[in-house]
Amino acid sequence: MTETALNPRPMPVKKDLMVEDANTRRRNAAEKRFRAYGLAAILIGLFFLIVLAVSILRNGLPAFTQTVVSVEFTLKAADRDAAESQLFKTKAYQDLFIAELAGKLDERGVEVVFDAATIERLLGKIGGDLRAFYQANPDRVGEPVSFELPASSRVDGYFNGRVTRETLQDSRFLMAADLDLVDAMQEAGIVQSSLNWTFLTGADSGVDNPGGAGIGASVIGSFFMMLVVLVLSLPIGVAASIYLEEFAPKNRFTDLIEVNISNLAAVPSIVFGILGLAVFIQFMHLPQSAPLVGGLVLTLMTLPTIIISTRASLKSVPPSIRDAALGVGASKMQSVFHHVLPLAMPGILTGTIIGLAQALGETAPLLLIGMVGFVARGYPDGFVAGFTEANSAMPAQIYTWAARADASFYDKAWGGIIVLLVFLLSMNILAILLRRKFERRW
Amino acid sequence: MYDSPISERQLTQQEIKFSARGVQVYYGDNHAIKGVDVDLEDKTVTAFIGPSGCGKSTFLRCLNRMNDTIDICRVEGTITLDDQDIYDKRVDPVQLRARVGMVFQKPNPFPKSIYDNVAYGPRIHGMARNRDELDSIVEKSLRRAAIWDEVKDRLNAPGTGLSGGQQQRLCIARAVATEPEVLLMDEPCSALDPIATAQVEELIDELRQDYSVVIVTHSMQQAARVSQKTAFFHLGHLVEFGETSQIFTNPEDKRTESYITGRIG
């Protein structure tokens, strides 16, 4: 008998470690492909993020600045007395200013023809402003005072290229000829760009006054709404999830509740708006357009999100911690409140902030309960009034501006988006800080 | 490790602490414990041995009603602690668990400081009137669990930062801090290395002076080393119960013999 007959299995071929075999090559190639897909996905996401950020900043930043004409103006006592003795006093002040401005332009060698109507279109009714200033500060008469007069928002549009001589249609707001004066003033160096406080702190303005529109009041409205949402949905949501997760018996009834909560999380927000309109305003007669009602509607919307995330984080606490607490004679409630809840806290916070962020950006339900548009009343007076007085909210305000015919409101809408995003970002940063503080390992 | 098993040391007949009669346990449709009668003595270490899934842990958890936390679990029969039925309607399981402490298979310290881990039980039971009393309870418990010297300088360090053996001894300290009468241990050494195991075993032997200890173990050597009484469970039945030396040297039942000689299990 030969060796092979005794040993029928062929000797295994020794594999060379230095050379990849076909199988390994295939696996490595697959891995490389997958990595490339992943990287591509991230790059695509990053690209859109950058495009979004750039376009928001480019369109929105102009809303934060405004064009001002800065003129040094000296009112002589004699001129004042003359003006005060006339029938149209503010007109007299305006004429004095126009004379001063014309003098300034001449002095710098800029030649331009303009009339009082041009000044009114560009700078508004400045006569009244001047008179009010000198009546409040009579001691400034006779000395040079530097005035910064905000120009019409259409002038802002002219400088950032939205309004051009070709596209401009003459109207009572701006004539193409007025732009000659704008150019002249710029040549004379008395046109500046400054921070637009009105936009940050003001309330909404009329449809033909984009320059006076501000987001401040609706920031306050959103803030009070978020306060309502936080104060209601966090305790209710956490209490409901603790009961469902730790105490409730598992039966058909609790299953039904569970399914319904999951379904509620997926209900379109406009449905909650209709519900809020029917229940809170028409049935309970709560004030319309009030942050209180907006907060209540958004609470309904946020609750399922908070309940779902809280239950998930309660579930993720290892059961050994519960056993340990029960094992030393803690009651069920002690084990939950002393041990399980603190460990679940980071997850609960994350869920709450996500819920709040969703609520903050929600527009549709607010449209239905009337939290939109023109709120000339401005700021609420006092804390309680903040909840009950009519106000707007940031996303609804942005929506209103975007829907207005005047293109100048377009800038305002983008600027509003920036403010909304800053608000959101600061909320997220707060959440991260809180999570860091509460986070514990086990 | 030991020349002579601890179990060969002198035995005295002790009072009955736990008495179980006709105990049946069901998990839903699964009949896990089938009619167990057993008397557990005070100041004695009783070991429960048997193959996996034989019901020894389940029975242990019946003794302090930890099974109550499992919805589908149902217990029949009577178990008495000092002649009082622990499954009586009037018994609050929380009060029972303060008297019957438990140490679990996996070390499970709370994610808090070492001090707070031990002080938690005394705090919720109102055992200390002031900080000094609490300090002395914590020190006494940590000394009893033979871990005081290792942690006395870092009582504020997190309990989860200790090594596995230290964590388990911390859990034992936590369990003895509430001054229970009975200590239930569910495979306390299964996650420990031999050195930590030896420390815990020594500890169990010391705890016997004050407590009745019931220990579930997969290691027959361990049962032989630490216990005076041994109960052998198989498929939900209590097959044999008696002196440890008796069980290991001269078992009456065939199944016991097969198990301890390694033929089943």
What is the structure about, briefly put?
The complex is a heterodimer of chains A (442) and B (265). Chain A has 442 residues and is mainly alpha-helical.
Give me some keywords for this one.
heterodimer, A: 442 residues, mainly alpha, MetI-like fold, 2 domains, B: 265 residues, alpha/beta, Rossmann fold, six-stranded mixed beta sheet, 10 helices, globular
Number of helices of chain A: 19
Output the CATH topology of the largest domain in chain A: MetI-like fold
List the strand order in the largest sheet of chain A: 2-1-3
The total tally of domains of chain A equals 2
Which architecture of the domain at 14-107 and 183-260 in chain B does the CATH hierarchy give at level 2? 3-Layer(aba) Sandwich
Summed over residues and divided by their number, the pLDDT of chain B gives a mean of: 87
Strand order of the largest sheet of chain B: 6-7-8-3-9-10
What does this molecule look like?
The complex is a heterodimer of chains A (442) and B (265). Chain A has 442 residues and is mainly α. Chain A has 2 domains: 127 residues, no CATH class; 223 residues, MetI-like fold (Orthogonal Bundle), CATH 1.10.3720. Chain A is built from 19 helices and 3 strands. Chain A has a 3-stranded antiparallel sheet with strand order 2-1-3. In chain A, helix 2 crosses helix 19 and helix 13 packs across helix 15. Chain A is extended. The N and C termini of chain A lie far apart (67 Å). By secondary structure, chain B is α/β, with parallel strands linked by helices. Chain B has a domain of 172 residues: P-loop containing nucleotide triphosphate hydrolases (Rossmann fold). In chain B, strands 6-7-8-3-9-10 form a 6-stranded mixed sheet, sandwiched between helices. In chain B, helix 3 crosses helix 4 and helix 4 packs across helix 6. The radius of gyration of chain B is 18 Å and the shape is globular. The interface between A and B is medium-sized, with 22 and 27 residues.
